[in-house]
Design brief:
Helix content of chain A: over 70%
Low-confidence stretches of chain A: none
Low-confidence stretches of chain B: none
Helix content of chain B: 40-55%
Number of domains of chain A: 2
Number of helices of chain B: 20
Radius of gyration of chain A: 25 Å
CATH superfamily of the largest domain in chain B: Periplasmic binding protein-like II
Mean pLDDT of chain A: 90
Number of domains of chain B: 2
Radius of gyration of chain B: 25 Å
Oligomer: heterodimer
Shape of chain B: globular
């Protein structure tokens, strides 16, 4: 086999090896080309070319009615020296950390609860999934009303039982907390579904074996459920990291980044630079900086995911 | 049961059918013209809905052209307008441009209108407020024709004033503050009422309070904070209202639409809005107080009363032809007709702020419109909140941020004004 491979490599007909170790010949590649070209063409059109354009934009001084002029890395320096950028980055990381982890915990708890058997499971499942069908605009309007400090039912109820209300329009920390809660409420069904499906796919025999070994429920969770849920947890966490990191609508609809730009997140910062101040160079630089930061934050998860996928494949 | 099988013949037939359908649609489209207009919903509504009816119908019939309105909120509208105008060509013919975004750079994206005006002039062009027209002229070229002004006034809920035993609306700013505090109460209907509601994302409101003391943010000749003491007093007044609960706890996130809702629902007694909102605020289908929402000119401070006229804040919209529009003649034809005296008066009846002086002098219009006289008076001395310059949007954002910090009590007004001066100064044109 190896001799044949060496011979083909020498002839130049062997052009590579896929993730599973299978070899690909030039003929196979030529046959596959028509099938993979549309997908690659699409990627090139909607991702690669716009990305290159945004790189070019990020090194120019560009606005409406003026021809772009090359300025090198000035826009990156400007953005990195802007206190609003750092505040937006801090707020984004705060929201990402709170939303992703709380959502994973809640999603996991609910998945286990549903898997353990609940009465009226269909109705409860529909109720849990319902927020995912609500548009972000409607959700923000509802939440703004619910938490209105003067007349909102939640605020009125909290006052009635002597609890302090969320002053989300005055206190930036309250604003960020409310935005996080709204995001969790809207997207919990996504996390829940991934974890619930993963939990249902764990073979019943493993739990039966654990019971024979007289494992406690906690031990079963730690030794059976959790290890087998890790791949699903990583996938859910990675997706939510990506989605929450670029969060825009929840913040824009709830607070518009206020009071006084103190609940601004990176996507809102980018939006203001691009569409209010028409500073396209700074906005493009912000976009690339966001991408770099999210890659750094998500790198661990990506490596874990790749390791898991390749080990499964082999 | 019949089963459907896809084979080469069926696929070919379906392909030919789809091509024929597409050709048919294309021909049908070519027979009637369409003028695409980039506008705010309020522009569309004032030209197509209301007591004066659809004012575009006669033009559409005469030109066998349909008007396709693409409407957006103010900032997204300007963004879309500039983006469309930056392309090599666009399907949009007419776009509405707001005065605060009409900079020299923006003007380069619009078609100069002087040749159109010479060849096929707008009726009695001199009747359109000359100050507004001048603001749309760059390097001697007219790039936009004023269509709508929004001059602000003080709206009040007469029923709530009566409930608190207040017989007349305020004549001075000090009276306004006093009444707003008294009107922060729970009404007989059980509604918690806040004295005044203002949006926090527009510079109109703090500029109005500053002007009540004779000050400004940036004057027409680009002087930054021409009277520091007056702006500080304006911010201190707003801070005082907020501390007293006479501005909503949600002040920092209140929007223009919230203002309308709060007044219509009786949740606030006073607000500052364009006079043109009168019909909407009193609309029986939306308002709990139809006929009870009245308006006056915003009151000046006691110290300046009778000494200097109050300069109300005015913003205005104008109609432009995008520089890369395919059919500029059709676009001009539309602008020309929509700027006629008859359409201007009709649009005013539909709720538009008319830019023609003659509209206010029309006895029929004045008799029908309870605010015509007060609006006309306010418009005479009105000024834009800040002049247009390339970094105006960034300057306004900084201004609003500092205003919010002052109103919420995070900074004292003097610190906030100091920060405004320090941070906005580098953004002004040299």
């Amino acid at each position: 086999m190896d001799a044949d491979r060496g011979e083909r490599q020498a002839r130049g007909s062997l052009i590579g090896e896929d993730d599973m170790g299978s070899t690909i010949t030039k003929r196979q590649f030529a046959a596959a080309l028509p099938w993979i070209t549309p997908a690659h063409g699409l990627l090139l059109t909607v991702i690669v070319i716009p990305a290159v354009y945004v790189i070019w934009l990020s090194v120019t001084n560009s606005t409406f009615g003026r021809a772009p002029s090359f300025v090198g890395l000035v826009n990156y320096v400007k953005v990195l020296n802007d206190t609003y950028f750092w505040r937006a980055l801090f707020n984004t990381i705060f929201i990402v950390a709170l939303v992703v982890h709380l959502e994973l915990l809640l999603g996991l708890g609910m998945a286990l609860l549903f898997a353990s058997g609940l009465p009226f499971r269909g109705v409860l499942l529909a109720a849990v999934l319902a927020p995912y069908a609500v548009s972000e605009v409607s959700a923000a309007v509802i939440w703004r009303y619910l938490f209105d400090p003067d007349v909102g039912p939640v605020s009125v109820a909290m006052k009635a039982i002597g609890l302090p209300i969320l002053e989300w329009s005055i206190e930036p920390s309250h604003g960020l907390a409310l935005i996080s809660l709204l995001s969790i409420w809207l997207h919990l069904p996504f996390t829940f579904l991934i974890l619930y499906a993963a939990r249902l796919s764990i073979p019943r025999e493993l739990y039966e074996a654990a019971l024979i070994d007289q494992a406690t429920p906690l031990q079963m969770f730690r030794k059976v459920t959790l290890p087998l849920l890790v791949p699903a947890l990583v996938v859910a966490a990675l997706f939510r990291y990506i989605f929450v990191f670029r969060m825009f609508s929840e913040v824009w609809l709830m607070t518009q980044g206020g009071p006084a730009r103190q609940t601004e997140v990176l996507a809102v910062y980018l939006y203001l630079e691009a569409f209010r101040f028409n500073a396209f160079g700074e906005a493009a630089a912000t976009g690339w900086i966001m991408l770099a930061i999210s890659l750094v934050l998500g790198a661990g998860y990506l490596f874990a995911l790749r390791k898991d996928m390749t080990s499964d494949a082999r | 049961m019949t089963t459907f099988k896809m084979n080469r013949r069926t696929a070919l037939g379906m392909g030919v059918g789809a091509a024929a359908l597409a050709t048919g649609i294309g021909r049908a489209r070519a027979q009637g013209k369409t003028l695409n207009v980039l506008a705010h919903r309020v522009h569309q509504a004032s030209l197509t809905q209301g007591p004066a009816g659809d004012l575009t119908k006669a033009w559409r019939d005469a030109n066998a052209t349909e008007v396709n309105w693409a409407t957006f909120d103010s900032n997204p509208l300007q963004d879309r307008l500039f983006r469309e105008a930056s392309l090599s060509s666009t399907d949009f013919g007419v776009g509405f441009l707001v005065n605060s975004r009409a900079t020299r750079d923006a003007a380069k994206l619009m078609a100069p209108l002087d040749d159109f005006q010479r060849a096929n002039p707008i009726e009695d062009f001199a009747d359109i407020a000359p100050g507004l027209v001048a603001a749309m002229r760059f390097d001697g070229k007219l790039v936009s024709v004023p269509f709508r002004h929004a001059t602000i006034g003080l709206f009040y809920n007469e029923a709530l004033l009566e409930e608190r035993g207040i017989k007349a609306p305020p004549q001075t700013l000090e009276e306004l503050v006093d009444q707003a505090k008294r009107l922060t109460f729970t009404s007989a209907a059980g509604t918690p009422v806040t004295g005044m509601v203002l949006a926090s994302d527009l510079s109109v409101f703090p500029v109005t309070f500053a002007r009540a003391f004779g000050g400004d943010f940036i004057s027409g000749d680009l002087k930054l904070v021409p009277d520091r003491g007056a702006l500080e007093k304006g911010l201190a007044t707003m801070q005082d209202l907020f501390k007293a609960g006479a501005l909503p706890r949600t002040f920092a996130t209140t929007t223009n639409d919230d203002q309308v809702t709060w007044i219509q629902q009786g949740r606030a007694a006073f607000t500052v809005l364009p006079f043109a909102r009168f019909a909407q605020l009193n609309n029986p289908q939306q308002s709990k107080f139809p006929g009870k929402i009245k308006a006056i000119e915003f009151p000046i401070s006691e110290a300046l009363r009778g000494k200097v006229p109050f300069a109300s804040v005015v913003e205005f919209w104008a109609m432009s032809i995008l520089g890369n529009a395919r059919d500029k003649d059709l676009a001009w034809n539309f602008i020309r007709t929509m700027s006629s005296k008859a359409v201007t008066t009709g649009a005013a009846r539909n709720g538009n702020g008319p830019v023609r002086v003659s509209t206010y002098q029309d006895p029929g219009f004045a008799a029908d419109q309870p605010l015509a006289a007060v609006e006309s008076k306010a418009l005479a001395g009105a000024r834009v909140p800040l002049p247009a310059f390339p970094e105006a949007a960034r300057a306004q954002t900084i201004f609003l941020e500092e205003v919010q910090l002052a109103v919420l009590g995070r900074k004292n007004p003097s610190e906030a004004v100091g920060a405004i001066i320090e941070r906005v100064k580098p953004l002004l044109p040299a």
